[in-house]
Specification:
Elements (H helix, E strand, L loop, with lengths): L1 H10 L7 E6 L15 E8 L4 E6 L4 E7 L10 E6 L5 E6 L9 E6 L4 E7 L4 E6 L5 E6 L4 E6 L4 E7 L4 E6 L5 E6 L4 E6 L4 E6 L6 E6 L5 E6 L4 E6 L4 E7 L4 E6 L5 E6 L4 E6 L4 E7 L4 E6 L5 E6 L4 E6 L4 E7 L24 E3 L3 E3 L2 E7 L7 E5 L5 E2 L5 E4 L3 E11 L2 E14 L8 E4 L2 E3 L2 E7 L7 E5 L5 E2 L5 E4 L3 E11 L2 E14 L6 H5 L1
Parallel strand pairs: 30-36, 38-44
Antiparallel strand pairs: 1-2, 2-3, 3-4, 5-6, 6-7, 7-8, 9-10, 10-11, 11-12, 13-14, 14-15, 15-16, 17-18, 18-19, 19-20, 21-22, 22-23, 23-24, 25-26, 26-27, 27-28, 29-31, 31-34, 32-33, 32-35, 35-36, 37-39, 39-42, 40-41, 40-43, 43-44
Length: about 525
Amino acid sequence: MEKKEKVYSTALASIAMVLFLVLCLSTISAASGQSTTPVKTYAYITNYADGTVSIIDTDTDTVKDTVKIEAMKDAGGKPLGIAFTPDGSKVYVANTLEAGVYANSVSVIDTETKSVIGAVDVGNYPFGVVVTPDGKEVYIANWGDTTVSVIDTNTNEVTALINTGNSPTGIAFTPDGKKAYVTNSGEGTVSVIDTATKKVTAKVQQVDYTCWGVAVNPAGTKVYVANQLSTNITVIDTNTNRVTATVKAGDSPYGVAFTPDGTKAYVTNSGDGTVSVINTTTDTVTATINVGSSLLGVAVTPDGKKVYVANVDSDTVSVIDTRINKVTATLNVGTSPVAFGQFIGFIPVKPVPLADFSASITEGKVPLKVQFTDKSTGSPTSWKWSFGDGTYSTTKNPAHTYSEAGKYTVSLTVKNTAGSNTTKKSSYINVVNTKKPVAAFSAAPTSGKAPLKVTFTDKSTGSPTSWKWSFGDGTKSSAQNPKHQYLQEGKYKVTLTITNAAGSNTATKTNYITVTTNTRPDIYSESK
């Protein structure tokens, strides 16, 4: 333990923490589905000394929330490594030493409630944390022994324990999730794990003792390893698992993070308070940024415009503008924030849902049974359906039977914690009768002097869907209950033809409307 205590006192002199930057793809669409909001990101930083996690809004560079990591299991409450599931629903935080006791647990945070919902027992002194790209597993580097614990994210149980090397510290996956690279800081090696077999398939020897931070470039072709007790970065080719270059950085390089396009890497130098900018094509330092002191964690925003650096001694996070490579802001966070580049994960945050649905059938005869399927995006948590016939449902994928003929407008409202959205489909379901309709009508008045205004009322049965009137004077109408004005005297035959999906029917009334004129003599009056 003498060597381990020396490593701990040297590399974690100010107590190590972990910064975790999270991509919030908050794609909030309007009802048209065309407009979206800008990409939004948050930075999650574990603060070791006060046992909290700070949540920074990277749009405004302000601390929005603080999550208290309660003491869990043996000791707990001292957060170190942190990683998110790809869907953004859960955060895994490694709990390390408290009062000289190994905590040996990983806390699970619910991102909606921003609270600890459980803990998982792992190996000794859990340090590095990373989630597989498919979100099914969490890998934990246990610095206090020689193992990596594997947690199933569905059950939050340890399913495997992989022997890697002395004091595994940092851990990173290739983008395809097929391999994990683990720095063994107690022996100066990097283990390569086959994630399918959960076995170490190679061990890279040509690195230094206290190899801490590790990151894989976005293309999955290179691994950068920060060697804390030297001044260099070791470059490993992922195809051969051999060292291909050594890049001289600053004093005591600790964290490593690549830009999203993979053209640059940012390295924190904890010994001299600088950040080295490396051209990944040439593997050379192209810029050195003066930041502060005791720099550990580093993370790059998904748009590549900002770099966040944890300053353990000053309890702050520095923000670097990558266009000018200068510090543009300094944020106060919790006590003793520290970070590794390999703990960066870019994940979608829950957006406002966009409602959408389909139906198994949209037209048919009474009774018509329809299976509705929710096709909404944005992970809704509640549903409210209106079927257009006065009935509703809160089931995600309801089945509904229409018992009467007609055209029905269906609407769906979906909600989650981010908001709600509604979509409506007019006359979406067309239900028809199985029998032909029977035409019938009335009129009021049926006689009078010209001009005579008559209101016709459809009294047909069988739920007709179309109407065709002939008023006997050469005029017609397709309204259900039309109004018509007769201008000339006479007796008029009225005909109504109605139609539905089963057929049509006609009703005719001869000499139904009688129209007289004001000049016509009143024979009855003259006889008197």
